[in-house]
Amino acid sequence: MPINIPKLLPAREILEQENIFIMDDERATSQDIRPLNILILNLMPEKEKAETQLLRLLGNSPLQVNVKFLKTISYESTHTSKQHLEQFYTTFSKIKGQKFDGMIITGAPVELLAFNQVKYWSELTEIMEWTNTNVTSTLHICWGAQAALFYHYDIGKFELKRKCSGIYAHKIFEQNDILLRGFDDQFYAPHSRYTDVSIEAIKHHPKLKLLAASEEAGALLIASRDRKHVMITGHLEYDSDSLAQEYERDLQRGLKIHMPENYFPNNDPTQPPINRWRSHGHLFFSNWLNYYVYQETPYIWE
User: Fold this and answer.
1) I need a surface site. Which of 66, 147, 298, 299 has the fewest CB within 10 A?
2) Which class is domain 3-159+173-238+278-294?
3) Does 170 qualify as catalytic in the annotation?
4) What is the pLDDT of residue 36?
C-alpha cells in the first residue's frame, strides 16, 4: 500500500525512481480504507534529505500512511529554504488538537548541549508531553531518543571520549518482542553521535525494555513496556553514503575526527561503503508501523 505525501514534495521524484508506492491526496481520498496518520517532527538541519530517508522506509508497508511534517517555531532552520518549510511544514499550535496514530521525532546536532540549553527544548517538552495522550506510539531517533529517555524516564546522557561513528554489530536482548520480529540474531546499524546513555539505567528502569545493543556502540533499541515510546540511538534510516558525507564535512571543518569504523572497505575512504543495514531498516519501520501503531491505534479516535 502507498504512502500519501504532498504532490510537490521534492522527495517524491526520488521515491518514484526507487519504485516506492506513493500517492497524493486526490487518489488517497478515493480509497475506502482507514489510513495511518503519522506526524514527523524533523529537527535535522538538512530536512529534505531526512524527509526522503524516512519516507522511503514508511512507504515499504502494506498500510496506507498519511504523513504530516512538523517544525519548531522557537528555532528557525538555516539549512532549509523558508519556502520549503512554509509549503510542507506545519507548527504545533495548528495540530495540537488532533490525534495521530504514530509520530517520529528525529535527531538533531545539539547533543553536546545540555537539554535545557537547546533553543527549542521548552517547545519540544510540550510536544513530548502531548504525545502521551494524542499519539499511539512515538519513535525517537538518535538525539531525539536521548531527549525522550531524559524527559519521560529521567535517564540522562553523557559525553563520549570520542565520537561514536560507524557500522556496528548488535545483539538482540528481547527475542520475542514483536518490534524485532524477523530480525537476525546479530544485525548491523549505523551510529553517529558524541554522547551515550547508560545501558544499566535502561535495564533497571521498570517501564523500559532494552531490545538491542552493541558491545562497541552501546544501547541501540529501547521501548517502553506500554509501546508508547520507542527510542533508537542509531540511524537505520541512513543512506549508504550518509556517514561518508558526515566524515567529509567534519574534515572540511577542521575537526579532529576519526574515520567511521567498520564502514569503508579496507578502511579506504575512496571506496564506496557497502550497506549492511538496509534490510533491517525496512523491517524495523515496517514492524513499528504494523505492531506498535496499526495494531494498537483505535479505528476512531475519541
Assistant:
1) 299
2) alpha beta
3) no
4) 93
